[in-house]
Amino acid sequence: MDVRDTPQQWPVLSSEDLHRDDWVMALRRDTLQDLDGQGTFSRLVMEHPGAAVVIAIDADGRVLCLKQYRHAARMRFVELPAGLLDGEDEEPLEVAQRELREEASYAAATWWPLTSAYSSPGLIAERIHYFLATDLTPVDRGDFVLRHEEADMEQLWVPFEELLAAVTAGEVGDGPLLIAVLMVRALGLA
């Protein structure tokens, strides 16, 4: 049995921009042809350039977490450093390194790619790339300025086993954090 995802594209008859501006995301409506050729249907698609997430673990086995307000969910989540790919030519590892520095003021000497996953492929084209970072050192943010929700972020160091327990108990709900923690455990990296 082949359980791998496979590329496929159904016929798109038309696309209509519902929202597009100078930011990296846009919303469009695609009209598709049924595979039997007898009908059409529409789907909303959130265009997204992708993102990178960093699970940074220090020499004591603690995970660098951030607490941040997310307006769409009306929640303050325990999260990991993460950010959007700013352009088509930006490599996910470069984004992960940038976000660790900008959001948390850390750099890592060792990086491992964990996986890549689509967050909700029925609606959004976002593909998130996950990395494990170790051998951490504090660094300056450079010219990056924390604004809006980021200006209110709280940094905390959580022992990996405690964070894993929070994940399995359903006490944290940020999808990228769950994926990163479970991948690190599944791969035997912590």
Secondary structure blueprint with pairings:
Blueprint: E1 12-20, E2 26-33, E3 40-47, E4 51-56, E5 62-70, E6 75-79, E7 82-84, H1 92-104, E8 106-118, E9 127-138, E10 154-159, H2 160-168, H3 175-186
Parallel strand pairs: 4-9
Antiparallel strand pairs: 1-2, 2-3, 4-7, 5-6, 5-10, 8-9
Helix pairs in contact: 2-3
Task: Write up this protein.
The chain has two domains: 12-47, no CATH class; 51-186, Nucleoside Triphosphate Pyrophosphohydrolase, CATH 3.90.79. Strand 8 and strand 9 form a beta hairpin. The protein contains three helices and ten strands, in the order E-E-E-E-E-E-E-H-E-E-E-H-H. The mean pLDDT is 92. The strands form three sheets. A four-stranded mixed sheet has the order 7-4-9-8, with helices on both faces. The protein has a three-stranded antiparallel sheet with strand order 1-2-3, with no helix packed on it. It has a three-stranded antiparallel sheet with strand order 6-5-10. By secondary structure, the protein is an alpha+beta fold.
Q: What series of H and E elements makes up the topology?
A: EEEEEEEHEEEHH
With helices defined by DSSP (H or I, 4 residues minimum), what is the helix count? 3
Q: Residue ranges: pLDDT <50 for 5 or more in a row?
A: none
Separation of the first and last Cα atoms: 31 Å
Q: What is the CATH topology assignment of the largest domain? A: Nucleoside Triphosphate Pyrophosphohydrolase
